[in-house]
Amino acid sequence: MDRVPILKLGDILIISIQIDLDDQSVLALQEDLADSVVTHGARGVIIDITAVEIVDSFIGRMLATIAATSRLLDAQTVVVGMRPAVAITLVELGLSLGGVRTALNLEKGIALLDHVRGATS
Amino acid sequence: MTGGWELPIASNSDVVMVRQRVRSVAVEVGLSLIDQTKVVTAASELARNALVYGGGGLARIEIVENGARRGLKLTFSDEGPGIPDIEQALTDGWTTGTGLGLGLSGSRRLVDEFDLVSAPGKGTTVTVTKWAR
Amino acid sequence: MTVDADVARRRIEELLRENETQILHRWTLIAKASSEELSDIYRALLTSLEHGGDLADMRGLLAELSRSRARQGFTPADTARAVFGLKEALYEAVESDGGPEALRGFIWFSRLIDDLGLFTFETYTTARERIILDQAEQLLELSTPVVKLWEGIVAVPLVGTLDSARTQVVMEKLLQTLVDTGAEHAVIDITGVPAVDTQVAQHLLKAVVAARLMGAECVISGIRPQIAHTIVTLGIEFGDIVTKASLADALAHALRRSGIEVIAPKATRLAVRTENV
What is the per-residue pLDDT for C269? Predict the structure, then answer.
């Protein structure tokens, strides 16, 4: 099983998915991340999917679950770097990723997190 | 027309293998990037369905031709419990498992041709085709 | 009088081989083509007849002939006529032979040449179709510019009739531009579009939703009254998608959303002030 490394930058956790994950690894990532949010007291989570070639309903559900779980743990989630082909396919598939914030790239993702936290705190 | 490839679907990592093989054949057939993404996503959904609901099965990948057009034909078959109500199974949001219920209905929208054969106790076979534009 | 078909064929083969020089010469005159090209084809014909009629090589050469002649400005009819000329070229040899096998064989040969002549025609048409398809694709690329309106704001001004294929290409290009430039605001302006059908409207909608999934905002501007009417009549749900009357309104909206305010301190001047966010 492949484990995705979780990086910490201040109070933000960053995960960059670089490989084609099987479903087991996806579930493991979900759990690892929730643990990390609590351990590090993170206030923001960024999931970088720049390298991800497809997002099917399973990965889509993972993104939504991570966002919802993190919110309960008082952390905001931003998904960054979705490719156009992936976005078009998701729309066609019927997945809207409701409740998941998105940004074009990592930099804009971090800016968005700052903005959201500025608004809520 | 080539002989095609047959891949077993018995574990999560097999689903990944199916995705990767479908991707490489889609590139060979000359599908656009968007169409590659669509057909690989559909393959991922259908392979997972065969694994989760059919208890595993087989994926067949073929290159098909229709005049000047080339396409990719994928067949996913399992010997699981089958689908009693196909009409219902193709509705968005319908699921017997814990999924989102978008696997079948969603993949149908991602491909050009979609054919589902299933009966209770007889397993399920889904055949999809994506043509190069 | 019956003549065995195989015997007849063999007789023609013999005639073709024995009189190669004369037939080729006559054919060159009739076809007005280069003798090298024709003799290549002639050889290929002989070889394929020897090997029981597999015409694959032959067809390859004919396709080449058809292409090269098309480049020189010959019509496909000219090329087909050149191929048909082989019949006439052979006839002399058949006549001087005079035997029933040769005559019977000539009918068979004639049919073969007809098929090959039609094949060159087909090759020509296929090549043409390819060119037309390629040009249509290039036109598609040309007709769909994505322009930068402001830092972080891009627009696609669509002009002319939108079909499903074109809309898809434009939308893909727009989304790719968002990635490449990091622009968070996009405007799809359809002022120059006379009408949309259900499919086109759906594609526009999907592009807006896809842009949102990627983390960008997309506004549609310039919807004509007829199009607005169509959209409502067709029952297409535009939901929470932002629409603006004109490209200018859409730009103002995008500027506002990115924290830039356009103000007019004097009636005659426009000034732009950037707010720090």
Answer: 55
